[in-house]
Amino acid sequence: MSDWYQLEVEAALRELNSSSELGLSSAEAAARLEKFGPNELVEKGAKSPLAIFADQFKDLMVIILIVAAIASAVLGEVEEVVIIMAIVALNAVIGFSQEYRAEKAIAALKKLAVPTVRVLRDGRLADISARWLVPGDIVRLETGDLIPADGRLLESINLRAQEAALTGESEPISKFITPLAARNGQAPPLGDRRNMVYMGTAVSYGRGTALITETGMQTELGNIAELIQGVEEDQTPLQRRLDHLGKILGYIAIAIIVFVVGLGLLRGEHFSNLFLVGVSLAVAAVPEGLPAVVAITLALGAQRMLKRNALIRRLPAVETLGSVTVICSDKTGTLTQNRMTVTVLDVAGHSRELATLVDSAGYIHNAVLKPEAAPEERSLDLLLIAGALCNDALLQDEPEGGRRVMGDPTEGALVLAADEIGHSKAELETRWPRLAEVPFTSERKRMTTIHHSPPEDEFAQAPWGRQPYVAFTKGAADGLLESCGHYWTGDEIKPLDEAARALILAANARSAQAGQRVLGVAFRGLDELPDTADESAVEREMCFVGLISMIDPPRPEVKAAVRTAREAGIQSIMITGDHPLTAQTIARDLAITTGDRHLTGHDLAEMPAGALQQIVQDVPVYARVSPEHKLDIVQALQDRGQVVAMTGDGVNDAPALKKAEIGVAMGIAGTDVSKEAADMVLLDDNYATIVAAIEEGRNIYDNIRKFVTYILSSNTGELFVMFIGPFLGLPLPLLAVQILWINLVTDGLPGLALAVEPAEKGIMKRPPYHPDESILSRGVGQRIVWIGLLMGAVSLLVGLFYYRQDPNGPWQTMIFTTLTLAQMGNALALRAHEDSVLRIGPFSNRLMVIAIALTVVLQLALLYTSIGRRFFGVVALSPADLAIGLAASALVFVAVEIEKWLRRRKN
Description:
Blueprint (H helix, E strand, L loop, with lengths): L8 H7 L10 H11 L12 H7 L4 H15 L3 H25 L2 H8 L3 E6 L2 E6 L8 E5 L7 E13 L1 H4 L5 E2 L21 E2 L4 E13 L5 H11 L6 H30 L4 H15 L3 H19 L2 E3 L3 H5 L5 E4 L11 E7 L2 E4 H6 L15 H15 L4 E4 L5 E4 L2 H13 L3 H7 L2 E8 L4 E7 L16 E7 L1 H5 L2 E5 L4 E3 L2 H16 L3 E10 L8 H4 L3 E10 L6 H10 L3 E5 L4 H10 L9 E2 H6 L4 H5 L5 E3 L3 H13 L4 E5 L5 H6 L2 E5 L5 H6 L2 E3 L4 H41 L8 H12 L1 H7 L24 H26 L5 H19 L7 H4 L5 H19 L1 H7 L6 H28 L1
Parallel strand pairs: 9-21, 9-24, 17-20, 21-23, 22-23, 24-25, 25-26
Antiparallel strand pairs: 1-2, 1-3, 3-7, 4-5, 4-6, 4-7, 8-26, 10-11, 10-20, 12-13, 14-15, 15-16, 16-19, 17-18, 19-20
Helix pairs in contact: 3-5, 4-5, 4-10, 5-11, 9-10, 10-28, 11-27, 14-15, 20-27, 27-29, 27-30, 27-31, 28-31, 29-33, 30-31, 30-35, 31-33, 31-35, 33-34
């Protein structure tokens, strides 16, 4: 049953065969525990660690690498086998840790859901573990308690629950016991079911009694656990692109072996030699260094992001950030400060922003007791004093500095506002000690406290003259006005006529329409202490002072981050459980939207299947949504081909965080569940950090594309030499061991150097790469082909020149050396896609300089040491020959630079 909120209290008790006076008997509780099971979240279908590890070897690129290792073993290249298998092992360990970590999300939910509770059993209260609760139990709730299971409230004494982690609602929810009706046949959102309490939330104020209606996986928190476990994580764009590339290279490798062996046999060459060369070329075609370079690139990127307060929990997320097209952001604590703040004060029809009063150095401090002060100043001062005194919140100094609000966030905002003007709560309560109070109730929607007036010599300065006591009341403005007969202008008390009432209500409506929470404040002077048991004896003939408007304000840095994201072709969408008016106000302030278009959870529930996908990108704000709705929105965006980053901090965000390509949790305000489900955690809860991470992700993907361009163009050059050489009358141009040497030396350090290349200018001024776009798109494929052909042609022409002079001369060594050095020029030129290396500075990437220098030294050592010559079948080149090889290889660098210059002119 899911409509407990519709039932009267007695009907709910009958439905569960329970008693509000006696609770359940121990025998009945035991029977129900047997039937329903423990009140805990159950992990379903979890993979064993062994199964998770085995899954890491199913990827095609990994299979190709294993085949390459076997081929290298056949060739006797032990070093190559060790390197390749080390790469395979590294990938397996990384993949295992990522997937194993994802399984911990449910464990975090379990931890969240097992408090100790006070339950009524056999007519007596007992403290038991929440694991043993069953439907029908009666539990007592007090301030600070975690709600142990879902329940229908039987009693609410000023009870307020903090449900932000579950619903996204920024303010504590006032609870009552009155039944609720469905709206147009649709259940109200969780945040509006104010006669219910839910597992995983907490009591922030008051006390109450609840009838447990659902436990364990049947609770709303259990429903979220089901959603988390039901979400299947898709491959990241990089994984899809590398898989696609791997398939292409796999087919090429097979074709090479068949072609080389077949062509050699037709030429009458020995099969064993042909097979070794064919397998060597196949290994050359498959860039076995690519997974290692990608893994290292992502790891280095993750380290750089950590310095910018973004903790990466899943390495592929580093690159995926660069492909993000939509950021779906929660409002509370992500776009906003998660701190209610007083913004506007309105007295006698005059509105003032609190910020302007603070900036003016607290000139209204104690103005209420200064007859010479301006009337407006006296009203503003009294408004802030009354708001802080009629209040149960406190400011607590933190050991590390700063202060923290203890109590209700709304009341905390009033205390902070008064403090910023110069009225500390402690000082006010010393001068205006509280003597009695009428507590807040959801029916009256207000609270009243009674205080001594200031010292006797200041009596005459107060608006109520020499009366020794004063009552301050704060609450909903429209209800409060019903108890007021006068209003204070700052220098006199006037009757509250219809014109004044209309003025106050208009100001209240303006603030409410702007998505702000509005409280009215009134006072009444007293000659003697009244009986607070009779609230009407206190809250009558009061004098209205003014209105206080407040809101959870946007983070100051977010607006610029949203603008930067827009310039980068990334759409920002707000998805929140908060009120639509509040959501729209924040969204407009941050330029997420310029209009009023939004959808609520109710709208989504009534929408026919498939309709959301058609409009999802046209709606910038979603309000009052449930966890299922967040998941639906992310899925609809993904169905439209978008790469989604979903931010959040609550338990309710976890399923959508896991479903999105990039789940971004808040490190400070986030729950353990959201962090475990996320790919990235913001250590500073700063939305701008997401944009910085996206920039880093784009740079990483750019660098991976540079490495792919470099390594495949180099491999293409090798293949061209081996294919075309025989048609020019040359024997096999390169030995198998020479091919493996080129791959080992040139793919290593230069590839890693490309991985740390700084970001190119304008990286956040271009649209993101489409998730289905090949890694070889945007000219990369053509560049690989023409550079490879040029590199191969230059090497072959040099070798052919020497071969025709002397077939027994150093022609093969010249091809080998020219091809190796040409790849160094290629690596240097490919440091930038469009900019000239001369413009960005040849030494701006020191690792590249070291890599090229070391590769050249190793090549020279191979040529000029007896061990190198004997093992690799080369001869020592004369200085003139070496100079010719170096000059020929430099043509590749010059050609790539000219091509980039032509592209810049075209653009």
